[in-house]
Amino acid sequence: MFKIFSNSAYTKAIRNTALTAGFISLGYYSTTTYRNNTNETKGFIASQKFKNTKYQEVYNDIAQLIRDNEEHDNYIGCGPVLLRLAWHASGQFDASNGIQGGSYNGTMRFDNELNDPSNAGLGYAYNLLKPVYKKYSEQISHGDLFTLAGVVAVQEMGGPKIPWRYGRVDGNIDAMPENGRLPDANGNANYVRNFFKRLNFLKDEEVVALIGAHCVGKTHLKNSGFEGPWGAATNMFTNEFYKNLLNEKWNLETNGAGNKQYNNDKGYMMLPSDMALVEDKNFKKFVKKFADDEQVFFNVFSSAFSKLLENGIHFDENTPILYFKTLDEQDL
Hints:
By secondary structure, the protein is mainly alpha-helical. Helix content is 40%, strand content 9%. It is found in: Mitochondrion intermembrane space; Mitochondrion matrix.
């Protein structure tokens, strides 16, 4: 199951008391003030500890996991859940009161965050990656592993190249953000727009592109309170999500968990927050744009997803931007 948005009833069920304002220095990283676009923002300095790691080899091992687990979830495979892991590990970022959360500290490895109801089902993805982490434990951080897994998932499912940089660290448990920061699947257009502003996404085009990750995977009633896939190509990264939003006939119905979702006669579904993209005039403009041209969607998604994975991190100018070859491109 891949689901960016979470049901508010689930999201509010558990709150932890971990302090998120003070991040603990581990000796090889620190916080700093750097210039992000036109604003000075307090953030984290990317570590150079694992600069010599052969990240293409790590990529290949994760990609092989996707190949080896193609039967997962009735042949949807594990690509969508690895993408969801990367999204959720980054999506609790908050720049509204200093820099908090995000992928930098790799805190999804802690039980309290992993067991946030919004992250239900991600234990499978975390456990899937454990052998990879064990193999490279002296060469990669959890935050880099989680985000790289998202890059692998997008590319191996036929999506765009995602630029990626190393430098995240295994932060202390005190760096873990409070639960409940992931978005509400019942949100309207104003809610969606305001939520993404917290993540430093001020352009509607980027917001619509990021939600387009719903082109893969499906929701599961037991995890999220919603049920069904967004389309037919559940393990192929395409622009089908936008075409379905515009062209399918959607009926608002109550599911088995008592939540409202939009269904069609093909067995597809949309969350209320998905439908907000066609109910809002400006959002809908980009839905049409991406439905008309998959490559345009890919270009915007690639940039926005990379930004999501890097929120709050200051990378040294010498830190290379890495692009990875898929297994097919390597004839593997």
